[in-house]
């Protein structure tokens, strides 16, 4: 069994939107990480993932603070 991650996915979308949201979160002192399966697959030498399907993660302890920032930034 895999250990539970300390991160939670809070948004999935295009790289441009993800970068915008990361800036908004960073301005509020919330660090985030991304996961891009398409880019990872290409770097490893095989195809994989869905274009413009980048995932944004924040620490679970920051989720409640991050979600309203994301919602407000996208409206």
Automatic annotation (TrEMBL):
<protein>
    <recommendedName>
        <fullName>DUF2007 domain-containing protein</fullName>
    </recommendedName>
</protein>
<feature type="domain" description="DUF2007">
    <location>
        <begin position="10"/>
        <end position="72"/>
    </location>
</feature>
<dbReference type="InterPro" id="IPR018551">
    <property type="entry name" value="DUF2007"/>
</dbReference>
<dbReference type="Pfam" id="PF09413">
    <property type="entry name" value="DUF2007"/>
</dbReference>
């Amino acid at each position: 069994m895999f250990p539970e991650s300390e991160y939670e996915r809070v948004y999935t979308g295009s790289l441009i939107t993800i970068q915008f949201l990361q800036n908004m979160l960073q301005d509020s002192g919330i660090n985030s990480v991304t996961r891009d399966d398409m880019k990872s697959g290409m770097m490893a030498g095989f195809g994989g993932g869905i274009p413009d399907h980048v995932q944004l993660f924040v620490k679970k302890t920051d989720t409640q603070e991050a979600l309203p920032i994301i919602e407000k930034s996208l409206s």
